[in-house]
């Protein structure tokens, strides 16, 4: 099952990265469009047997895609459609709607079957999602669990049946434990995929050590390795970890000031929709 908050973090990180590359990027979150008419829906709203809920969710997706296409015509380069797109029918609809405007599509799927990760996501959602604002934490957690079960009834992982091999996609399993890529076609797609593959969105530990300057390499190495008494184990929350990763990429990519200027002023060659 997809992790909603993981997808949101992926698209936020991707948008910041693209903007750092001086590439106009914008996110179109289908949930935000849906909240205009259903700000705090229960899990039943996402039941496929709920005709009214299905109609409203489809209308929200249609409005988001329409706004994204209009934004492309004004000079946008990479549009991020932040939605579940959890069925083959929905992915086909997105592809047909966008491709006929001459826009390339890359799908990004975050799939998780690790119960520990799912529960961590539920704990996160009940305190951060606008859908559960003002609700009791335990009730919110149970409702979101029920929402996941409704999605699971129709959820179809991309290309599981082998009939979506024509799609360009990145599939991330269990928050990065496995990654599958298919039909990545050009430079910008490769940059985005490489960035997302190496993104750290889970809490992790980082060791920091003071390094002294010495002419001798051996002396430098011995000084760089921290003595156990001087080590500090810092655990960063997921947001901080993501920012550190993004900064590392941004610092390492330009090899010189000239290269950085050239990269920022070059014209983008790819116009696409990152559908999450």
Helix and strand arrangement:
Elements: H1 4-20, E1 25-29, H2 30-34, H3 51-73, E2 78-82, H4 88-99, E3 104-111, H5 115-128, H6 137-154, E4 169-173, E5 178-182, H7 187-197, E6 204-208, H8 217-224, E7 232-236, H9 238-252, H10 257-265, E8 272-275
Parallel strand pairs: 1-2, 2-8, 3-4, 3-8
Antiparallel strand pairs: 4-5, 6-7
Helix pairs in contact: 1-9, 5-6
Descriptive overview:
There is one protein chain. The protein has 276 residues and is α/β, with parallel strands linked by helices. The protein has a single domain (4-199, 237-275), classed as Rossmann fold (3-Layer(aba) Sandwich). It has helices at 4-20, 30-34, 51-73, 88-99, 115-128, 137-154, 187-197, 217-224, 238-252, 257-265; strands at residues 25-29, 78-82, 104-111, 169-173, 178-182, 204-208, 232-236, 272-275. Strands 1-2-8-3-4-5 form a six-stranded mixed β-sheet, with helices on both faces. It has a two-stranded antiparallel sheet with strand order 6-7. A hairpin with a 4-residue loop joins strand 4 (169-173) and strand 5. Helix 1 runs parallel beside helix 9 and helix 5 crosses helix 6. It starts with a helix and ends with a strand.
Question: Gist?
Answer:
This protein is α/β, with parallel strands linked by helices and 276 residues long. Helices cover 48% and strands 15% of the residues.
């Amino acid at each position: 099952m997809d992790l909603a908050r993981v997808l949101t973090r992926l698209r936020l990180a991707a948008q910041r990265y693209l903007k750092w590359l001086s590439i106009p990027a914008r996110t179109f979150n289908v949930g935000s469009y849906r909240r205009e008419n259903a700000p705090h829906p229960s899990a039943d709203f996402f039941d496929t047997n709920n005709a009214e809920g299905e109609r409203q969710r489809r209308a929200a997706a249609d409005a988001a895609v329409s706004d994204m296409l209009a934004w492309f015509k004004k000079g946008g380069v990479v549009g991020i459609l932040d939605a579940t797109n959890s069925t083959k029918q929905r992915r086909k609809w997105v592809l047909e709607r966008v491709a006929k405007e001459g826009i390339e599509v890359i799908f990004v799927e975050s799939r998780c079957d690790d119960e520990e990760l799912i529960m961590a996501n539920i704990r996160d959602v009940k305190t951060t999602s606008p859908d559960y604002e003002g609700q009791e934490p335990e009730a919110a957690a149970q409702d979101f669990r029920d929402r996941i079960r409704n999605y699971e009834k129709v959820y179809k992982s991309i290309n599981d049946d082998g009939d979506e091999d024509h799609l360009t996609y990145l599939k991330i399993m269990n928050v990065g434990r496995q990654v599958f890529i298919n039909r990545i076609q050009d430079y910008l797609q490769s940059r985005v995929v490489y960035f997302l593959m190496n993104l750290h969105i889970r809490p992790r530990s980082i060791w920091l050590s003071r390094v002294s300057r010495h002419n001798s390499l051996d002396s430098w190495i011995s000084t760089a390795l921290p003595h156990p008494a001087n080590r500090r184990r810092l655990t960063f929350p997921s947001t901080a970890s993501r920012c550190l990763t993004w900064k590392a990429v941004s610092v390492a990519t330009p090899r010189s000031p000239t290269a950085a200027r050239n990269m920022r002023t070059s014209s983008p060659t790819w116009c696409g929709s990152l559908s999450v």
